Amino acid sequence: MKKYLLFLVFFVSGSILTAQKKDTNPIPVIFDTDIGNDIDDVLALQMLINYDRSKVIKLLGVTIGKSYPRVVEYLDGYLRYQKFRPLPIGFAYNGVNPEPYRYVPVALDTLVDHKPILKPKRKLDSSIPEGYKLQRKLLAKEKDGSVVFIAVGPLTNLQRLLDSEPDEYSPLNGTELVNRKVRLLSVMAGLYNDDFDFPEWNVVQDLHASKVVFERWPTLLVASGFEVGSKLLYPHQSILNDFPHKDRNPLTISYEVYQKMPYDRQTWDLTSVLYALEPDQAYFDLSAAGKITIEKEGHSRFSTRSGQNHHYLIIPQEKQARTLARLVELVTGKK
């Protein structure tokens, strides 16, 4: 019965990408990620690749908030493995988290039949711009009020964007440029219920940046808190069964290196992608409008205030199965 119900969820939701493809122009998206820290960034990236292939979005570029140099090679190699067009990549120079951590160096160094599974052609050098500079360049080219920003790591690049001055890309300063071009920031950051009480990881990695972004971001901001992705666990069975060439697929290899299998990983970053691109499909409830403030130690506090443009996501128990099924569908590309 459970398998049958899951099939129904997949069957019904499978029409959504098709409907969006027919009814709308692709949504311009900028993805800011700390890929290399947690495995959910890789799953979120795969979602965006699949959305782009379905013409729901146009992925404009990826900016990296983790300052480990080989992440540029991993991202470029991953896109090439997917036979995806070469996207502009930006990097948070002198940012946070410079350590290798787990899966990036392993995936880059993995050989199958004496050949690397990842074959990057770009690495961190002068050809890779500052993340915020790339964001300025991409924003300046898009229509006013059109861009969706998805940020799922430390907010270093976004803070630098807000603080930026007019340049060769735009006569506007960073805050003005964001206000003109962006319609939504969907951000994985903070905690917004009583299930947990600690400063959330993304927030505290660059606490100054988090305070600046939540205080000064001028457009609609929707936060997915730690508690949301914690209730939606990506099933390890999908990693084992849903991806071709599992022994040479960088997604499956990265997942299996990140922790000892079998494990079901929280879908924190995936929830921010899903809400940003399917906000009308009721996968989540949305809080009232208000203001999110980052306190001294990194706690995120929400207060209802008229005229404010912050919200946070809520995932009621009755929506969890359908939402998780949609996330799996979007990662695997299977309908």
TrEMBL record:
Species name: Sphingobacterium yanglingense
GO molecular function: hydrolase activity, hydrolyzing N-glycosyl compounds
Domain Inosine/uridine-preferring nucleoside hydrolase stretches: 29-298
Keyword Signal found: yes
A Pfam entry, by short name: IU_nuc_hydro
Membrane-spanning residues: none
Full protein name: Inosine-uridine nucleoside N-ribohydrolase
InterPro entries: Inosine/uridine_hydrolase_dom (IPR001910), Ribo_hydro-like (IPR036452)
Protein's UniProt keywords contain Cytoplasm: no
